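Sat 14:20. Reprocessing the chain from the morning session after the first attempt stalled halfway. Input below, unchanged.
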Amino acid sequence: MKLVGKTAVVTGAASGIGWATAETLAAAEACVIVADIARDQGEAAASTLQKKGFKAEYVHLDVTDDMSIAKFTETVQAKMGGADIVVNGAGWGQIKAFWDMPLDVWSKIVALNLVGPMKLVKSFLPKMMERNSGKIVNVSSDAGRVGSSGETVYAGAKGGLIAFTKSLAREVARYNINVNCVCPGPTETPLLFAVPEKHLEAFKRAIPFRRFGKPQEVADAILFFVSSRSDYITGQVLSVNGGLTMVG
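Finished this time. C-alpha cells:
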C-alpha cells in the first residue's frame, strides 16, 4: 500500500500510536507532517524519519488551541498545498470515578479528544473539497463504543468522535473524501502504562489474546484506511483490540 505523492498530517505523532502511524505512512512513501504539542519529541521523531530516508517534517500543534490550529494549517498549506490525509491520533484520558473528576479535567479531555480533532478536520476540508479527494481517519477508542468504567468523560468524548466520523462521512462523500475511525483497545502506549498495575492485569485477562495491542497493529489499520484499498469504504469503525469487544 503505497502513498507516493501524498501529504499526511498525523497528530500526536511524537509517541505511541501516533508515532507508529507516522513511521508507517512515511515508509509507504507519504510526506508526513509530524504534529505534536511536545516540540522536542516531535522534532526528534521527524529527525528519526528523515535519517531513515523518509520525507517528514515537524510542525508544532496544540489541538486544544484555536490559534495553534490556524497557524499549523496555514504552515502546512503554504509548504505542501494542503493535506491529502489527516489522522487524528492525539488523545489523552484519566481513570477516575466520574463524580470525582474535576471540571477542568473534563474540559481538557473533551477538547483534546473531540473538539480539537473536529476543528482540525474543518481547517483542512476546504482544500480537500476543492481537489475532490481526501482521507480522514479519527483514532477513537473502544471506550467510545461500549463504555469503560472510570473513563466516563473520555468515553463520552470518544463516542462523540465516532458519531462525528459517521456524520461527516455522509456529508463529504460527494467530494470523494473518505472518513473512517479506528478504535484501539488497551495498547502499549505511555497512556496505558500510566494506569495502575492492578487495572492492567484486569485488562489483560479480559482480552481473548491475553496481551495488549501494539501501536504498529493500530497503525496498520490506519494505513489501510488512508490507502487506495479503502476507496469504497467510509463512515466505518474498526476495533483493533484482540477481541476485547466484538461489536456487531
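Strands lie at 7-11, 31-36, 56-60, 85-88, 134-139, 177-184, 237-240.
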